Amino acid sequence: MSIPTAIKTKVKVLIVDDSDDQRTLLRRYFERAGCDVTVAASAEEAILSYSRSTPDLAVIDLVLPGMNGWDLTERMKADRPECMIAVSSVLDASQYPASDAVLPKPFTGAQIRKVLRDLVPKWSAE
Fold this sequence. Notes:
Elements: E1 12-16, H1 20-32, E2 36-40, H2 43-52, E3 57-61, H3 69-79, E4 84-89, E5 101-104, H4 109-119
């Protein structure tokens, strides 16, 4: 017996990117996929956010003001090991820290859905 869509728990996604355009684009893609999205412009904002509510998935840009994405990825893995992490950057993928997935920029809606499908079992494309 399938659960009605209205009852399903939405996947919580935290987007961490210092670019307004990238945050907006990522938010749009994840909201279209039916996710509940929170955005942060810095690692420090992200830490405050996930200390209040643990996301199912965090999308972390590597180049951030203050604490960088490498350090945030490491800290988030320690603080919230149950949260899946996708690293996003314009840098070469060989420079990415270990993570659950990568979203090289520019990304597509199909890549967003693949990350959700691969990392968040409760997500459904319905």
